[in-house]
Design goal:
The chain is α/β, with parallel strands linked by helices and about 140 residues long. It has five helices and five strands; from the N terminus they run ββαβαβαβαα.
Length: about 140
């Protein structure tokens, strides 16, 4: 699990990127953290403890705890069991943190969410930005 720290004193929406691959999750978190200029708590989590592909509910719980600063948390999964793990987390969540799941492209959604969160947006606005990245053309 890689955490990109925040230098902001005003709570912003935290972002958790969950992927089957630790390298993909950490790389996307690094990119998103750079475009947010360190103003947003972003964690990339993925893979199994022994380095294989997979997802972990325990790792997701820890990541949500790390990024939660009082403004809510966005979880952005890549595919398959990462989505199922995120949904299981939401079903079992009991700590009162406002957490939402975004159906968005992984890297583009992470970047859009980070930029939006860095401006002090609400959780709903950050989710909308992530999901809106689906319609942004690259070419």
């Amino acid at each position: 699990m890689t955490e990109a720290s925040t230098s902001s004193e005003i709570p912003t929406v935290g972002i958790v990127l969950i992927s089957h691959s630790r390298a993909i999750a950490e790389g996307a978190a690094d990119v998103a953290a750079q475009v947010s200029a360190g103003a947003v708590r972003i964690v990339g989590v993925g893979g199994t403890e022994d380095g294989r592909l997979g997802t972990s509910l325990d790792a997701l719980v820890g990541a949500v705890e790390k990024v939660s600063a009082g403004a809510g948390v966005l979880i952005l999964p890549d595919l398959g069991s990462a989505v199922l793990t995120a949904k299981a987390f939401l079903a079992d969540q009991e700590d009162g943190t406002d957490v939402m799941l975004a159906d968005a492209p992984f890297v583009e959604g992470a970047v859009a969410a980070a930029v939006t969160a860095s401006g002090g947006a609400t959780l709903a606005e950050v989710v909308a930005a992530a999901e809106g990245a689906r319609d942004v053309r690259k070419l």
